[in-house]
Amino acid sequence: MDIEEIKKMDHKKKVRIGLLMGILCALYWGIWYVPGNAAWNLDILTVLGEKLGETSLSGDVQNIVACIFITGFNAIFCAAVLFIWNGGLRKLPEFKRELTEFRGASKYFLMAGICGACAVSGTYLAAFNLSAGFAAIAGLLYPIIGTIMSVLYLKQKVSKRGYLSIVIILVGGITLYLGSIISGGVGGEGNLMIGLIGGIMAAVGWGFEGVFAGKALDFCEPDVGLHLRFCFEALFWIIVMVVIACTGVPIFSTIGEFLDPATFFIFILLGLSFAWCYVTWYKSFPLLGVARGQAVGSLYAACAVLFLCLFTGPAGALGYDDDSMLIIVGSTIAGLVICLIGSFLLASEDTEGMVSLREGRDER
Hints:
Layout: H1 3-8, H2 11-38, H3 43-53, H4 59-88, H5 92-101, H6 104-129, H7 132-138, H8 142-152, H9 160-183, H10 192-216, H11 222-246, H12 261-288, H13 290-297, H14 300-312, H15 314-318, H16 325-347, H17 357-363
Helix pairs in contact: 2-12, 2-13, 2-14, 3-4, 4-6, 4-11, 4-12, 5-11, 6-7, 6-10, 6-11, 7-10, 7-14, 8-10, 8-13, 9-16, 12-13, 13-16
């Protein structure tokens, strides 16, 4: 679907297709947490941890470096998957043109890539230090940022019902965070505070990314723009890892482990699930608007918790022990339900009067 095709659609068709894209996004996004959680148990992360342990870095800094490593290669594998995807769609010439001209759209996708880098690294920090389930639900706060910025920056319309949904989502986020704070994050392997900050990074990063992507998608086709976004993020992380390596930290010393079939398979799953999640997420923005597209995609948290419980068990998914089970499970379920209610109110809001930025400029 290009911009002109979307503009020719009637309102009901836009909503139907947009909702389908949002639901598919939630499924792929939820699945992504399973290989993301499994990656921590791979030999490549174990060997990296041993090598980092030989340095003078503190334990928390070592964990942050490991998160940077896995986030960087998550972006690289996504960029590779999208290269094949756009090659199959014969859109690589358009990708090359957008990249070399670096017009307004490319600049916005560069900012989206950096915001996405913040979000994904925050997710891994929250997952490692607390639990994958906490990381998934903490990210549910991102529609708050996306909605506020879509009003202030993209000039899109949100009703009183939309603002009410923001308050409800915020209450859900507070409920989730309180459970981890009260229990002391006992289920995690690292620092409680770093895990909580990681959850905030995920929400803020994805919220701002949606805004920048919504702006850029009025000028660029979603598949091409998405590819640009991941290439920029991959480049960002490569630069960061090179800088880290120049300080003497052996961050590249375990790359040979990617030849291991299990490691390569997990990272391929990461690339496929996250790339497809983003393909459908970006396609929902021109159809539903940033705020509503993000709200529908918020179903990912429920999908993530479900898939994680299925593959790792409830304790592995939510990160609790016998003493903290009641607090962690209770705050997680309550926070998830409250956030999903807020997201539903936002997603089901009438979109009849909403127009894209491109349409608004054309009318003027």
